[in-house]
Amino acid sequence: MTAATETDRALVDRVAKGDRAAVRLLFMRHHARVYRFVARQTGSEMMADDIANEVFLELWRQAPGFEGRSEVSTWLLGIARFKALSMLRKKKEDWIDDDDAAQVPDSADTPEVATMKEDKGAALRRFVDALPEEHRSVIDLAYYHGQSVTEIGEVLNIPVATVKTRMFYARKKLGEALKAAGYDRGWP
User: Fold this and answer.
1) Could you give the CA distance from residue 81 to residue 42 in angstroms, rounded to a whole number?
2) d(Cα 180, Cα 123) in Å, to the nearest integer?
3) What range(s) does the RNA polymerase sigma-70 region domain occupy (predicted)?
């Protein structure tokens, strides 16, 4: 167990005792990750902002019941996923443009290589978005949020073997889609 993990858990214990400063510290540490995760899940920056804030209100409410069976960050992402799915069922909002979200300039590359990377990245993002939700969530958590297979299982509340199976099929479908679109393996 790392010092950061112990510190997060200690902060949750403080939150459970009514310490508002501990909520602010956890918010500062985890808000960006929760926001990015929800933005990818919902496709809405406005919705992501609202849900990310609700996650920390939920942290305040649920802290006394936190049992420490998972990392605090994993627990928060699980709350975020539940809230995002609930909100998506309730309302539809403007969706952010995936091309704008996927563009990340690389100053070390030539303009041609950068364009090739942007095209392939945008195509890959479209292919990921076209996956069924169960596969898209696994890919998003693994590759865009750096979660381990175990953490993904905890966030999605599914067995590790199911995570691995979904990851296998998602990667297979992505590889087939990239090949069919004329993209070679590797980057760019």
Assistant:
1) 10
2) 11
3) 26-92
Q: Burial letters for 16-25: b for 16+ Cβ neighbours within 10 Å, e otherwise?
A: beeeeebbeb
Please choose, from the candidates 34, 12, 32, the residue with its C-alpha nearest in 3D space to the C-alpha of residue 23: 12
Q: What are phi and psi of 67, to 5 degrees?
A: -100, -5
Q: What is the pLDDT of residue 115?
A: 76
Rounded to two decimals, what is the model's pTM?
0.52
Tens of pLDDT, residue by residue over 51-73, are: 999 999 999 999 998 888 888 98
* Cβ burial 93-107 (10 Å sphere, 16+ → b, else e): eeebebeeeeeeeee
Q: What is the pLDDT of residue 177?
A: 84
CA torsion sign, 140 to 142 to 146 to 152?
positive
* Distance between CA atoms of residues 7 and 100, nearest Å: 36
> Any idea what the Cα angle at residue 98 is, between residues 127 and 163, rounded to 5°?
45
If we measure between CA atoms, which residue out of 35, 16, 22 comes closest to residue 76? 35
For residue 111, cis peptide bond before it (omega within 30 degrees of 0): no
Which segments of 17-148 does DSSP mark as H helices, in order? 20-42, 45-62, 72-90, 98-102, 111-130, 133-139
Structure tokens at 17: 């005792």
